[in-house]
Write a structure and sequence with these properties.
Length: 148
């Protein structure tokens, strides 16, 4: 139940930001990513890899991200479809490369309001806050296939 309340809170904040309400203006928070499809995840990984980012250090499942990275390195015309298939196949087995794929993660830009929000959320034991280069990544500690 607690998980559902928190996810409702995050969704509410996200919707408020999307709708550009006064709350968003006060906090100056910008949500840069929430739910992703397998194709959106694949596209992001391909773009990051092409930009020279070491995607292997970002993701926890080293076997899966290595498989994805190797597929991207082949540089064939069907790379988006091939990487999407790898991600989809893993999801069918209950393996999620990113918690964005199951709605248990949200990215916030590093604006001042986000810093205040993050300092507040860091006290929440059910959330993990990861500071990345250009954004904050918040994710629930429960696994994608867990219902709390």
């Amino acid at each position: 139940m607690e998980y559902k309340i928190k996810i409702i809170f995050i969704i509410t904040v996200t919707l408020m930001l999307i709708l550009n309400t006064s709350y968003a203006a006060i906090l100056k928070i910008k949500v840069t990513s929430f739910n992703r499809t397998s194709q959106e995840q694949a596209k992001l990984l391909i773009e990051d890899r092409k930009a020279g980012k070491n995607i292997k250090i970002i993701y926890k499942n080293k076997d899966l991200i290595t498989k994805v990275s190797n597929e991207i390195d082949k540089k064939n015309d069907s790379v988006l479809e091939d990487v999407t298939k790898i991600i989809k196949d893993a999801m069918k087995e209950g393996i999620y490369l990113s918690k964005h794929l199951c709605g248990k993660a949200i990215d916030l830009s590093k604006r001042e309001g986000a810093k205040k929000f993050i300092s507040f959320m860091k006290n929440d034991k059910s959330l993990q806050v990861i500071e990345e280069v250009d954004h904050y990544h918040l994710q629930f500690k429960s696994e994608c296939n867990e219902e709390k």
